């Protein structure tokens, strides 16, 4: 949704890149596989995050949306994390990797439009972007230590011991926080003008898609 640098163009560079990647996947089945430790933690902590949100925010029981059933309309498809049944609310969970990333967490333009897309798909009125902070599994902390040991050449050096101690300390800090200190909520209300703008960009993206070739 970012405007192009040139006034004569509708799509910005980021949008064009996304369209190009989709074209390569559709035409040739090419897709780059990206897996990070942050992504894996988020997937593993989905249950803990839902329970933490229920504890802090209250309200109805939260059940993760079935990822195998994408919501679609003429312009958008998506998998919201949580669609509340008793409230006109959609929620999306971002599980922070560390205390620092949780501290820095905010609403980006991408997340705002992601939320508006979910409201368009569900007909709901409110989107909640929820950041949670859960301790990392000890197995993952151990793997982090192994990775640093490999980079340093061994796990007996003074540098490694300092790193190992700090990694465990950083994780243990999270366990000392109160539940309400480990949840951040940003609310975005339905904006039909912005949703219509999404539809217009999708039409422009389709036009650009149809011009692509190797």
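Sequence proposed for the structure above (214 residues):
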């Amino acid at each position: 949704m970012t405007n192009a640098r040139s006034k004569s163009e509708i799509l910005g560079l980021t949008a064009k890149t996304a369209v190009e990647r989709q074209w390569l996947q559709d035409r040739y089945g090419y897709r780059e596989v990206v897996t990070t430790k942050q992504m894996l933690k988020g997937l593993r902590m989905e249950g803990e995050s839902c329970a933490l949100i229920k504890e802090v925010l209250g309200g109805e029981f939260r059940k993760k949306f079935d990822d195998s059933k994408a919501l679609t309309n003429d312009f958008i498809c998506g998998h919201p994390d949580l669609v509340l049944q008793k409230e006109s609310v959609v929620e999306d969970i971002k599980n922070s990797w560390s205390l620092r990333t949780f501290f820095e967490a905010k609403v980006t333009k991408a997340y705002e439009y992601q939320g508006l897309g979910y409201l368009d798909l569900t007909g709901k009125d409110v989107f909640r972007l929820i950041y949670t902070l859960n301790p990392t599994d000890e197995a993952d902390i151990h793997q982090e230590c192994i990775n640093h040991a490999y980079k340093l050449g061994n796990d007996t050096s003074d540098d490694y011991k300092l790193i190992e101690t700090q990694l465990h300390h950083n994780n243990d800090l999270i366990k000392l926080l109160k539940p309400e200190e480990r949840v951040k909520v940003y609310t975005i209300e339905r904006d039909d003008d912005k949703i219509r703008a999404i539809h217009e960009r999708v039409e422009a993206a389709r036009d650009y898609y149809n011009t692509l070739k190797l």
